[in-house]
Amino acid sequence: xxxxxxxxxxxxxxxxxxxxxxxxxxxxxxxxxxxxxxxxxxxxxxxxxxxxxxxxxxxxxxxxxxxxxxxxxxxxxxxxxxxxxxxxxxxxxxxxxxxxxxxxxxxxxxxxxxxxxxxxxxxxxxxxxxxxxxxxxxxxxxxxxxxxxxx
Length: 151
Ligand SMILES: [Fe+2]
Ligand SMILES: [Fe+2]
Description:
Elements: H1 14-35, H2 41-66, H3 71-95, H4 98-128
The protein binds fe (ii) ion (FE2) (2 copies).
């Protein structure tokens, strides 16, 4: 399933919004590569993982810069995703199944990404723009359980 970027996902921070759009693009490209059984999947996967790490670092730095009150909690969510991605990447590297990878991207990553942007990341933008004091009123959490991301 291709993710279509929705402007309502913008959090109002240009760097973060452009990185989120890029992440959506990279996930879509990787799903397409899986469909095509493309030879460049390992490189594309590695690029996506690295880009995600860069994004998390930038987003966490932004939170610290602005004194975002849910920094620790947010960082923990990022760590959980890193952990589960690491596990899936290891499985993919072991078994080389593109259908497995596509399923992970479709069922887990895409859902996590959208849910996380809509809830957790949105709170950062709201806090920085002064629209909220960092209340978790919009938070509805993610049911996805994450375990391990390394390369
Ligand atoms: Fe985040
Ligand atoms: Fe984010």
